[in-house]
Amino acid sequence: MKNSEDKNLEKGIQLDFQKDMSYGDYLRLDQLLSSQHRLSDHHDEMLFIIIHQTSELWMKLILHELNAAIACIRQNDLEPSFKMLSRVSRIQQQLIQSWSVLSTLTPSEYMQFRDKLGRSSGFQSYQNRLIEFALGNKNARTLAVYQHQEELYPLMVKALNEPSIYDAAIFALTAHGLQVDEKALNRDWSQNYEHNDSVEEAWLTVYRNPEQYWDLYELAEKLVDIGNQQQLWRFNHMTTVERIIGHKTGTGGSSGVTYLKRVLDQQFFPELLSLRTKL
């Protein structure tokens, strides 16, 4: 069998990696694939760990793209941000699909190792919190979770106090000559954004004149896509938790499903939704 395989290999395929970087070297697979440590002997804990680790990797990429998009928008260079935001939306689809994989974990199976999680909880995911901040869902109280992490905490405070991608988009409206109230442009970035009539009017102008404001129109629709995907991710999170633990209290102390249902009420980019009624 070995001789047969050798004959089928193309002559140019490199086999000796004594001195060259291999695929595994580049991706540091020795570190990546040795980072799954079960705290129980239960078979399905491996699923639980990998789902959450891969979700964090996808979130890292979302933040990479979102931060770059925000930088472009703040410079009023909108077109490069469209590709980045489209990529974010596709990544969100991957994250949404991951809940269907986790839902193969039954309540009985999860109960076999749930106690091993201690007080750890997805609520503590700092990358998910940074994504929410970047999309405009700000809540200073959530930062208390990270106070014990000396290097992370200042980064979280900084992110809380920076303009979100929607704030950047509102500045882009003014850069294109549209009028927006000063209170929407000069506000406390650490607070949740609240609906502003002048912002709605500006977006209405964009949607009524898409040819004149095509870049802003395209940006708005990209943001709506991301907002919708984030809501779908939240919804699938809630239904997966309900399927596996019912209405038990979360490991991190939250009310579990009840808390996740309240989170669904926190919408993104309010004027981009309300203007649809007025068009």
UniProtKB/TrEMBL annotation:
Catalysis: reaction(s): L-tryptophan + O2 = N-formyl-L-kynurenine
Pfam families: Trp_dioxygenase (PF03301)
UniProt-annotated binding residues for heme: 237
Statement: the UniProt record of this protein carries the keyword Iron: yes
EC number: 1.13.11.11
InterPro entries reported for this sequence: Trp/Indoleamine_2_3_dOase-like (IPR037217), Trp_2-3-dOase_bac (IPR017485), Trp_2_3_dOase (IPR004981)
Binding residues for substrate: 48-52, 110, 114, 251
Keyword annotations from UniProtKB, A to Z: Dioxygenase, Heme, Iron, Metal-binding, Oxidoreductase, Tryptophan catabolism
Cofactor(s) it depends on: heme
Family matches, as Gene3D superfamilies: 1.20.58.480
Cofactor note: Binds 1 heme group per subunit.
Pathway annotation from the record: Amino-acid degradation; L-tryptophan degradation via kynurenine pathway; L-kynurenine from L-tryptophan: step 1/2
Oligomeric form and interacting partners: Homotetramer.
Function comment: Heme-dependent dioxygenase that catalyzes the oxidative cleavage of the L-tryptophan (L-Trp) pyrrole ring and converts L-tryptophan to N-formyl-L-kynurenine. Catalyzes the oxidative cleavage of the indole moiety.
Family to which this protein belongs: Belongs to the tryptophan 2,3-dioxygenase family.
Name of this chain's protein: Tryptophan 2,3-dioxygenase
Source species: Neobacillus kokaensis
Native organism taxonomy: Bacteria, Bacillati, Bacillota, Bacilli, Bacillales
